[in-house]
Amino acid sequence: MSQNRTVAVIVGSLSKDSVNRKVAKAIAALAPANLTFTEVAIGDLAFYNPDIESEAPAPWTTFREAIKAADAVLVVTPEYNRTMTAVLKNAIDVGSRPWGHSIWAGKPGAIVSASPGGVGGFGANHNARQALGALGVAILPFEAYVGAAHTLFNEAGELTNDASKAFLGELGLKFADWIERNAAK
What we know:
single chain, alpha/beta, 5 helices, 6 strands, 37% helix, globular
């Protein structure tokens, strides 16, 4: 039987009506019941600057503690100019410092990108994979790109597309298994 696991969710968009947040919520709703998903806010993180590390801003500390406490991390991001968003890159940087105290190393993770375009944020997905992989995140080898994402939800923010439900449900199952195989024992 699978253990109950906590998943920190990082949404790479600051928009209150973010389609990426809707995708993250859909994944959480479709995933196995032993996974508990909690979004960790990144909008209040000051830009990483080593000069202020000795008196780290409170949002940095809150963010770092939330990610450390989670068993796994799910990143859901849009693509801006063929790369991940600046706010997501900053969160990754804040979590990787100070040197020798990265919150990322050894943590199982999954990356999903969603965009209005047909490619589904391919560039952002791979850019996030590169950064988090370099920091030791065990990234689920199931690539998830959600194209035309804005058309998949109704006015209430509920996923209505059956093919997307099946795809994101499969992602949730694979991620649950990945967490079990890669989580710290």
